[in-house]
TrEMBL record:
Domain D-isomer specific 2-hydroxyacid dehydrogenase NAD-binding: 112-290
Family: Belongs to the D-isomer specific 2-hydroxyacid dehydrogenase family.
Organism this protein belongs to: Luteimonas salinisoli
Domain of life: Bacteria
GO MF terms, alphabetically ordered: glyoxylate reductase (NADPH) activity; hydroxypyruvate reductase [NAD(P)H] activity; NAD binding
Protein name: D-glycerate dehydrogenase
């Protein structure tokens, strides 16, 4: 008699032609379009499955897996995984995977798009035009800040940070970076980047891009004190995680003329955005879409599927998921 098939939960509809591969190996529990699960709802769906494929909006921790005695793997679609308590899942023997690499270039592209939009006041100019103000144009209307010849500072020099640094070369920008550990000299040369300590980085930045992970040590790293070190003409771009920035302090600095402009793709309470930020003209706001190109999102989902299939002992890479976060959980 054939063994019963493993069961997995697909938290939301994602490229059916890609996620359809799960049906070759598992019984798949699919969620309806538009559903957003939290807390007890997630716990209920994890209770009777062996694996799950989730996105950044599904938050999974100790409470959500308390009754999930069959659960062996959670495949997260995204390079960041602060929606998942990796320590709690690892302690329960649940493998967590993510999708790095495939979104690096697309995210770096978007980081530069945000930088240009904020520094050159692109979205502000569009609103101004649509509101019928062009008839009042003057020579100093909507003056922005140049990218070429300026100093770009990158906080967090992983794959995405390095991608941003390489793009800066085309704009003749000087690149400084700060990272938890300094990069090898060969990588610095490739990226044309110089290492700086954090206070020096903040003080010298004409433009600052955040590309570091969110953790207890980086929570509100960019607070009122950090913002006070920056030039009043500087531009801040956050494509990392919202919790890295004290958003109330940022809004106050932007409103008070102590910071020139900002561009945010991530927010501490997303999908909620603080009204203090929404009220400002000198901030560009996008809804966490840095990786949102068709090709990249498909590649992310495909990698998550590969991870889940392998983590549950199926397919050609059985037992060897490509990108585990807590590989030690495989041994439990």
């Amino acid at each position: 008699m054939a063994e019963p098939r493993l069961r997995v939960w697909l938290a939301r509809p994602l490229f059916e032609d890609v996620t359809g591969r799960l049906d070759q190996h598992f019984d798949v529990v699919r969620s309806a379009v538009g559903n957003r699960y939290a807390g007890a709802e997630i716990a209920a769906r994890l209770r009777d499955v062996d694996g799950a494929l989730v996105t950044l909006v599904e938050r999974i921790g100790a409470e959500e897996i308390a009754g999930a005695t069959r659960l062996r793997a959670v495949a997260n679609v995204g390079v960041g995984y602060d929606n998942i308590d990796v320590e709690a899942l690892g302690a329960a023997g649940v493998l967590v995977t993510n999708t790095p690499d495939v979104l690096t270039d697309t995210t770096a592209d978007f980081g530069f798009a945000l930088l240009m939009a904020a520094a050159r006041r692109v979205t502000e100019a569009e609103r101004w035009l649509r509101d019928g103000h062009w008839g009042r144009w003057s020579f100093d209307t909507l003056l922005g800040v140049d990218l070429h010849g300026s100093t770009l500072c990158i906080l967090g020099m992983g794959r995405i940070g390095q991608g941003i640094a390489r793009r800066a070369a085309g704009f003749d920008m000087r690149v400084l970076y700060h990272n938890r550990s300094r990069l090898p000299e060969a990588v610095e040369r490739e990226c044309r980047a110089e290492y700086a300590d954090l206070p020096g980085l903040l003080q010298r930045a004409d433009h600052l891009v955040l590309a570091l992970p969110h953790s207890a040590s980086t929570h509100h790293l960019i607070d009122a004190g950090a913002l006070a070190r920056m030039k009043p003409t500087a531009t801040l771009v956050n494509i990392a995680r919202g919790g890295i920035v004290d958003e109330l302090a940022l809004a106050a600095a932007l409103a008070g003329g102590r910071l020139g402009a900002a561009a945010l793709d991530v927010y501490e309470g997303e999908p909620r955005v603080r009204p203090e930020l929404l009220a400002l003209d000198n901030v560009v706001l996008t809804p966490h879409i840095a990786s949102a190109s068709l090709a990249t999102r498909r590649a992310m989902v495909a990698l998550a599927v590969d991870n889940l299939v392998a983590a549950l002992g199926c397919g050609p890479d059985a037992g060897r998921p490509p990108t585990p976060v807590n590989a030690g959980a495989l041994k439990r």
